[in-house]
Structure formats: structure tokens, C-alpha cells
Amino acid sequence: MNRLLLTFLLMPMLAVAKVPDEEDILGRTMNTGSPYYYTSLRLRYDMGDSTLTDEDYHYLYYGYAYQEAYKPLEANPYVDRVLMLAAALNPDMPERETLEEIVSVGRDALKKDPFSPKLLNLMAFAYGALGDKEQERAYSDRMNGVMRAILASGDGLSQSSPRHILLFDHALDVLAAEGFSCGKSRIVSRSVEFVPLAVSYVVEGKKRKGFYFDFSRVYWNKPEGYTYKRDRTWQFNNLKPRVYK
Fold it and tell me: Is the pLDDT of residue 162 over 80?
């Protein structure tokens, strides 16, 4: 199974970032007459609608911040269980029982974080290994749609053009999917964090040492004195995001 290339990375770099406009997102996702009415979009997403566009994913991902279910600081115990199962899995000869448990627990984990790139990737892998190609592609499409939405929100190369995320873990997942190993992130402002790369790289003669992410949505309703614990990324057993051509 080819897990090394990423379909969403094949798209050209956007000349202008699609920075989330909160007034626009709120207005369109709450309007029952809008093509981006959230209830309708989410139903299509959950049903695995392959016709969802990048514009749809923009409103799906960032519109989720206005939904009652969005609780980014609430613990999600199912994630740890999924990652433990995946960490013990041999991706080349996976046991069916473990794959079925990943699917079962993964569904519960996605109820709290429906746009988690690593969870969507693991679901795609598990379904593919179980022989369910339809669900494998559906979860892969979801993952790639979410990734494109995040990547389109900013180039992440400066504090003024960060990539926008709903959970801290999504930043680490994006970078892991791009093939980067990261160091410990640091907060650089009230709404932006910098995630350093373990190894810098050069683009157009400029050294890139890391990426900036806007995490402001995470703390919109932050409880007093709360400390956020980050989950691990999917960088285990060389289990990379799924590929479709």
C-alpha cells in the first residue's frame, strides 16, 4: 500500500491565502438559504459526499468553531486508545481484530474531533486494510479536504500569514503529513504559535525554520487556569497519509 505521497500536496501554491473571515463564515453557515448552511454541509461530510469542494471544506472546517459540539479543550480519551492500537500495528501485516477496533474506537474519537487529520488517516488505513475501498476513499477524501483548507488559510511563513487551526494537534498533523519533524512549539502572541522544524530547509534561497499557526479559536472559551495537553501525531510505524491518484 502506497502511503508516502500526499494528494493534497500536489495542488499549486495559492497566490492569495483564503484567510478565514469570521463574519463571512458565521453568516453563511448559519443562513438556511446558503449553499454553505452548516447542517447541510455537515450531513454531506458525514455521508462521505465526494462532490464537496475546497470551498465547502473551508466553511465546514472553520464553521465548526461556531457549533455547540466544538469543545477543543475537552479531553478526548478515545484518541489515546486509537493511537495505542495503531502504534502496536504492523502496517504491512495488520491483524483484522485490531483494525476493526481502530474503526470502532476511531468513530468515537471523531465525534469529538471530526476534522482530525490523523484520525481520518487512520480510519482510511484501517478500512483499506479491511478491504472496504469505499470507506477508505471517503475518509481519505475527508482528510485531504481538511488539509487543503488549513494549507489554504495562510502560508505559515510569518506571524502575519499563519495557517489557521481548530486544535493544536491539527498543526502537528499537517506538518507531519508534509514530511516535517518538529521541535517544541512556542507561543509568540495571544493568537499565534511558532512550530520549529527539527531540520531547516531552503526555499527560493531563504531558510525556513518553522511555521506559524493561528490558534485563537482554541481559546475562545478557555476555562480559567486550563493547560492543554497535546496528543501525538501519526508518526509511528511509518504510517503515512493515504494516497489516491
Answer: yes
